[in-house]
User: What shape does this take?
Amino acid sequence: MNSLKELPKSERPRERLYQYGPSNLSNEELLSIILKSGNKKYSLKEIVLGLLSHIDNIKDLKKENVVSLMQIPGISQIKAIELVAVLELGKRVYAEISLEDVIACTTPTNIIKYFNYLFQDKKQEEFYVIYLDNSKKFLAKKKLFIGTISSSLVHPREIFKEAYLLSASYIICLHNHPSGNCLPSKEDIDITRKIKEIGVIHSIFLIDHIIIGQNNYYSFYENNHII
Assistant: This one.
């Protein structure tokens, strides 16, 4: 059977999800629901099986992008976009579910617990700033810079402009090292010092600058570089 319509109604993925819940469906069935249909050349089943054979593990699907998915026979640009959108939405639902409830976002372990997902599978450096109110409660996160971190690329004025717009009293800087080595470079140290000094002048204080590596991190606060 190449078409879902050929299956008895009770065995079709959508009906099975409705009756038994999503946790009782296979990866193939869940992907069939998301991808919806085949095309003139490939049946839905062939497309789904091609996708599953393209990855070693279902968790590897999070590494795919629109271009790579379109290399799989039968997956059009529209299907690839829809699948990437579903994956991103799922990531946000489970990663950001408690952000508005963060009250004491002050320790590196607590910060990483909530924001580590931002850097998963990133191939280049990304620089985020977390903005907190005067009770150190989460206000917002902003991705401000992409690329190698240096004083010429990371502009404190952009960091503090957002802080003023949000009426923030504290900030936390986060960026990743795709190499996996979390030790700070000279540029990391220089920009941290500059942000701290400007923050003191404007009464918007830098709590920490955390560098995310491969299953490790470096906290300027924990290493007594922010006092």
